[in-house]
Amino acid sequence: MKQIIIIEDDIHLARLMQENVNEVESMTCKHLFTNPVEFLQNPIEADIYLLDIVMPEMNGIDAIDRILKLYPNSAIVMNTIKDDSETIFKALQLGASGYIDKQSFEMNFKEVFASIENGGAYMTPKIARQVIAFFNQPKNISEQLTEREKDIVNGILDGLSYKLIADRYSISIDTVRMNVKKIYRKLKINSKSELFKIMGGAGK
Q: What does the DSSP assignment read for 49-64?
């Protein structure tokens, strides 16, 4: 019998998930926690932890490493509405074995657990598409950008603040902000750290 623990701040949703898990003969979920701090104060070993990301006191990303240090043979499955590529990669880097779009939990959780039991990892289709889209970005990223956008990317990569970028190119801070939004949209990213990742291989 596989032991499942749910760490989820929406207690109503957590109980629905618990009911789903307990309907499967080979699984049981006896324990619910509303945030990682509550769990870490009273840790219980399980085969699989279902872990939300956006929670009070400690987020799920920060909890991955702490849980795995306690129970290195356990599997962690992120169950969240956050589907940006940076969060997905961070969770997988830290040791998560699966990533579920919370809205499709009932549809996908059996397949997720079966995959993990067989030594694999699992992402729901919506999450997998995010990962594929990230890796399928054109090699020559700079071709997607205007000359002004390239200038601003170079400023960001040089570590300049928006004000210093504006000063360098004699434009307003509002123009910098507007172009940053366009750059993120074109490159399908959400943060400076993602920009550094993709531009690191593409060059300026």
A: EEE-SS-SSS-HHHHH
Averaged pLDDT score across all residues of the chain: 85
Give pTM, 2 decimals: 0.64
The 10s digit of each residue's pLDDT in 59-117 is 999 999 999 999 999 999 999 888 777 788 788 888 998 888 888 788 878 887 777 77
CA-derived radius of gyration, the chain: 20
Domains and CATH numbers, the chain: 2-135 (3.40.50.2300), 141-202 (1.10.10.10)
Cβ neighbours of 136 (radius 10 Å): 8
Instruction: At 147, list the tokens.
Output: 């000359």
Q: What is the pLDDT of residues 125-166, one digit of tens each?
A: 777 776 666 666 555 666 778 999 989 998 888 888 999 999
d(CA 109, CA 82): 17
Give strand pairing partners of 7.
33, 51
Sign of the torsion formed by the C-alpha atoms of 161, 62, 94 and 122: negative
Alpha carbon of 34 to those of 38, 68, 141, 167, 202: distances in Å? 7, 18, 42, 47, 42
